[in-house]
Amino acid sequence: MSRLGWADLGLATQNDMAEQADMLANLVPSVPLIADADTGYGGPVAVARTVSKYARAGVAAMHLEDQVQEKRCGHLQGKQLVDQEVFFNRIRAAVNARKDLDLDILIIARTDARQGLGFEEAYERLRRAVEVGADVAFPEALETKDEAAEMIRRLGDTPCLLNMVSNGVTPEITVEEGREMGFRIMIFPATAFEGAIVGVRNALEKLKNEGRQPLNTAGIKHAFNLCGLQECIDLDKNAGGKTYSDV
Asked: Which of 87, 94, 95, 144 has the maximum number of C-beta atoms within 10 A of its C-beta?
């Protein structure tokens, strides 16, 4: 959504996602980035290419799912899945590409099976995905806290990821609750985006209704500093440059 301005309906291509991942991973390279790789954007060859692109961009971990190519957000209804073997082929292709190309990236297996095929199918898909080489299990859109705890119990020592989407299918689970359940990773993919939507709407409503900008904004200098202004000034100065000496 933040790149194309369209709903999460599988419209972003491999190149769209790889370019976005590259930008994010290199903003602060010391912070590990988990990136969505959707379905891998095709068959095993495309999956291998996706792994290569993401790893070389600096992505620390990527998740591959079992929806069809015409996919959608995991918290929308009506998802369709590929057969188990197609899903396992995606995971196997990713694991093989990592090994063959000597890449440093974690492979996260995500299943959307809970909605249409039930909890048992979701568990079985993740169990077997781990058997073929996935490092982390990602059960998307679990419907109760009990289900989340049971999935953790069944998968044993396998690290599990919990995706928290506000007003999504999964009930709210705090970081502390997730830790107590045994989740090793929690992601909040829409939190900053949703906060930005509220801030933009409020600012533009004030401009429309009152003809003036809000007075309590961060300010342009602060925004520039968040995006590396001071680092650029220091880099230029340390190299003997004077381009930004009067900024």
From this structure: 94
- One-letter amino acid at 75 equals H
- For the chain, report the end-to-end CA distance as a whole number of angstroms: 34
Q: How much of the chain is in helix, strand and coil states, percent to nearest 5?
A: 45, 10, 45
Residue 118 to residue 76: CA distance in whole angstroms = 16
pLDDT value at position 94?
A: 98
Helical segments of 132-170, H only: 145-155
Helix axes 44-57, 14-25, angle to 10 degrees: 20
Sign for the CA dihedral angle at 146, 148, 150, 153 comes to negative
Q: For residues 200 and 206, give the distance between their C-alpha atoms in angstroms, rounded to a whole number.
A: 10
Residue 244 CB coordination number (10 Å): 14
Q: Is the entire prediction scored with pTM above 0.85? A: yes
Angle at which helices 84-100 and 44-57 cross, to 10°: 50
Per-residue pLDDT band at 102 (split at 50, 70, 90): very high
Give the SS3 label for residue 185: strand
Q: Residue 175: which residues within 8 A CB-CB, separation 6 or more?
A: 186
Give me the amino acid identity at 130.
V
The two three-digit tokens of residue 192, written as one number: 């900053």
Give the C-alpha separation, 54 to 17, whole Å.
Answer: 9
Query: Which one-letter amino acid corresponds to residue 107?
Result: I
Closest of 123, 111, 115, 131 to residue 154, by C-alpha: 123
The single-letter code of the amino acid at 164 is: M
